Amino acid sequence: MSRTLVPVSRVRVEERAATLGKRSIKNEAKRQGILLATSMIDLTTLEGADTPGKVRHLCAKAVCPDASRPEIPSVAAVCVYPSLVGVAREAVHGTGVAVASVSTGFPSGQTSLGIKLDETREAVAAGATEIDMVISRDAYLSGDDARVAHEIAAVKEACGDAHLKVILETSEMPTYAHVRHASQLAIDAGADWIKTSTGKKPPGATPGVVLVMLETVRDHAWKTGQIIGVKAGRRRLDHQGGDAHARAGQGDAGRRGADAGALPHRRLLAAQRPADAVRQARRRPLRARRGLLEGVRP
Amino acid sequence: MSATVERTALRWDYAPAPESRDAARIAPSYDLFIGGEFVAPRDGRRAPTVNPATEEKLAEIAFAGPGDVERAIEGRPRGRLRSGRGLPALERGKYLFRIARLIQERARELAVVESLDGGKPIRESRDVDIPAWPPRTSSPTRGGPTRSAMRWAAGSGARAASLGQIIPWNFPLLMAAWKLGPALACGNTAILKPAETTPLTSLLLAEICQEAELPEGVVNIVTGDGTAGAALVRAEGIDKDRVHRLDRRRQGHPARAGRPPHLLTLELGGKSANIVFEDAALDQAVEGIIEGIFFNQGHVCCAGSRLLLQESVADEVLRKLWERMERLRVGDPLDKNTDVGAINSREQLDRIEALVAEGEREGADAALDLLRAARRRVLVPSDAVHRRRAGEPDRGRGDLRPGRLGHHVPLARRGDRARQQLGLRAGRRRVDRQRLQGVRGRFRAAGRRRVGRTPTTASTRRPRSAATRRAASAARAAQSGLLPYVELA
């Protein structure tokens, strides 16, 4: 099966992302930006060593990132493995913080569709209101777009009312054109959000990748009016959009998801006009109010 | 567990982030830099140079007359930096590197002064306008000839010559470096005349030459208006002039001055066209268009001031372009988040406004509304838009004929076929790129004999990586940029 990629120029994407990264964010803008970024975080733990106690601890931090600074809002959600959804659900009950769960054989996605669907249903039944699925990269990379789309649609159905975030794992994609193609594929198959990466593989969510995804989302919104969320996964972006990890010379990207102290913007949304944003925010608390990346809006 | 923290609708925008002016030490008045020292002009003429963003006076600048130019010519040490008998190439190289180091040390000061005097956003003066010559490679934004090209020039047996160099107001410091670097590398002496609206960074460069203990009179800087420029172009005792002009209305334009008594290189601009085909990466093509026309407030001689769109993507490109234009941050040149700063001078602003008014009378569309809405003093230039059907050869109107497109044509497209169909010819073509190579291209273009062609040598036929090919092409081009100096021999 042949696919047609929409061309994307790597050099210009990276230039544009770098220009945005060089913006100076100071004083009130910095304060507001940190608050906004915090409110968009999915505080995450996805380790073999996760225990109920660790998840409860994470949930406490999610609801109140810093007790000495009451102005800092709760994060958007906690994100855990399906087996710990129940613990998280109980811990954040009534706080407005959502429970998200990875699913579909995270992070590799190398399992059968039946198991993926069962895992999804189990997580939703345990109280997850957001599902982070991974696409079948084996299918995508071998050119089988139809299978990728079919799986997304099936998982979407299994989600019921839960939001579906589709993880593209852009770190495994050869070019930005593929990022754009996979984004559109996921959107067309029914994704509520598209997400860059699992965080298990460097380099994760680079500014360029996020920019291309935001542009895809904006074009989709122009065509259909539907606004799709974008989540930058598991790579800590500092408050200036640069990459804290690259600067620190660390290979791994934010094992603990967002440490509340670091306050990255974990959930980048398709930027919206303020009026739309407010409306959207009322309807769905987790929808972002406004993207941090300028330059893109539906 | 604490209580629910209420989610409030957060608003977010950039706070003002002005660069500090403390780094800029501007003297109340500046003399001419002749023979290694600052001297008052003979007829005592002076005029203020202003910050175009606020029209605040920055300093009094000496205006050189013919007498001062004569003094600079007489005082220059003929042959002192001369290859072989005078200063050997190695010693000349040491001066160059010393000057380059001092420029780096004072980079922030130079950037701030450049923004104050010329109105450029500090983002650009900081990232683009500080010359690093001779650069190791021909990096996209640093411009100028490479080290290897300089080495080649230095060893080429160039005769020590006396140069007059007149530079424009759009890249005052960078252009000064582009002109002086090769001149010094080839062992010439130079008399540089900066534009009357942007003399300050050249004068700081004069201070740097003093500090580097460059032999007296090798670099002379005569500030002033067209009088000084005309005197320089007509002067006896000059071997060569490099003139780069943006203002065609002035009297004394060398092209009109009859046959000058010496060699003359003119560096001119044009109404360059962006051409976007349907198979382009559209979002990035828009970025290219934006950089092409808004970089440095559009004060670029090869600015992409026209836009030719294939009909099938015209609407989409225009929508994206419009949306992107609305996000340009217009404002204080010293703010680090400003994309479009101040128009260089009152004179230019008046001219732009007159052109905008004329465009409106002739029925130009909404782009002009945006321009009018922009603050009076920071008006932005606009693109003229043409649509074109695929493959339409356009013989009738001839828009695509050479000469109509300007000398610098960026293409947003991935293939070559349509280009050939259109019979497109231009001095410089760029596929998928506009500004980055464009600015660098300015320098190289100066030395080109055959437009649009790179001389092929045996070595270029070997299969090499794209990076190697680019480097080789840059090296060749950098050499050709130096030819006008070497050919003086």
Chart the SSEs and their pairings.
The complex is a heterodimer of chains A (298) and B (489).
Chain A: H1 10-21, H2 27-39, E1 42-44, H3 52-63, E2 77-80, H4 85-92, E3 98-103, H5 113-125, E4 130-134, H6 137-141, H7 145-159, E5 163-167, H8 176-189, E6 193-195, H9 207-224, E7 229-231, H10 244-248, H11 274-283
Parallel strand pairs in A: 1-2, 2-3, 3-4, 4-5, 5-6, 6-7
Helix pairs in contact in A: 1-9, 3-4, 5-7, 7-8, 8-9
Chain B: E1 29-30, E2 32-34, E3 37-39, E4 46-51, E5 56-62, H1 66-75, H2 89-105, H3 107-118, H4 122-127, H5 147-154, E6 162-166, H6 172-185, E7 189-193, H7 200-211, E8 219-221, H8 226-234, E9 240-244, E10 263-267, E11 273-276, H9 282-294, E12 306-310, H10 311-326, H11 346-361, H12 367-373, E13 384-388, E14 408-412, H13 417-421, E15 428-431, H14 435-446, H15 466-486
Parallel strand pairs in B: 1-5, 6-7, 6-9, 7-8, 9-10, 11-12, 11-14, 12-13, 14-15
Antiparallel strand pairs in B: 2-3, 4-5
Helix pairs in contact in B: 1-8, 5-15, 9-10, 14-15
How would a crystallographer describe the biggest sheet of chain B? 5 strands, parallel
The radius of gyration of chain B is 23 Å
Lateral strand order in the biggest sheet of chain B:
8-7-6-9-10
| Low-pLDDT sequence parts of chain A | 236-298
Please state the CA-atom Rg of chain A, rounded to the nearest Å: 18 Å
Helical/strand content category of chain B: alpha/beta
* SSE topology string of chain A: HHEHEHEHEHHEHEHEHH
| Tally of helical runs of chain A | 11
Biggest sheet strand line-up of chain A: 1-2-3-4-5-6-7
Strand content of chain A: 5-15%
What is the β-strand count of chain B?
15
Mean pLDDT of chain A equals: 80
The span between the termini of chain B is: 84 Å
Helix-residue proportion of chain A: 40-55%
Please report the distance between the alpha carbons of the first and last residues of chain A. 32 Å
Shape of chain B: globular
Q: Helix/strand/pairing class of chain A, anyone?
A: alpha/beta
Shape of chain A: globular
